[in-house]
Design goal:
The protein is mainly α. The chain has a single domain, classed as Glutathione S-transferase Yfyf (Class Pi), Chain A, domain 2, CATH 1.20.1050.10. It is 61% helix and 0% strand. The chain has six helices and no strands. Helix 1 runs antiparallel to helix 2 and helix 4 crosses helix 6.
Amino acid sequence: MQFFPSLKLVRVTQGEQLAAAVEAVGKSFEVLDGAFHQCSKGNAFFGGERVGYLDIAFGCTLAWLRALEKIVGVKLFDEVKHPALAKWMDSFCSDPAVDGLIPETDRFIEFLKLLPGAPPRH
């Protein structure tokens, strides 16, 4: 299953379907973790020592991931299983090119409540 469809299922399902969607997101993180190791070659970011296109593309999902975890009440990203990606997330969010651009989770959730037809589930 692909990353974004799995995230949507996390948002709209419950029970066993939710558990399956969370597992699918976990498998997507395994693929992303492998891609990070292959692309970064031990560097801080996907393309090396500086934030690049892949970092920005994946980094744009971080606010959504954090909000979804809080809205649904499930843990989607496991820092223990994917320590390299966890370190990348910290490096990405604290990089001067990105610092302050990713909204705080509660504030982002308040924004999501304003979107038509998409009230967060509690």
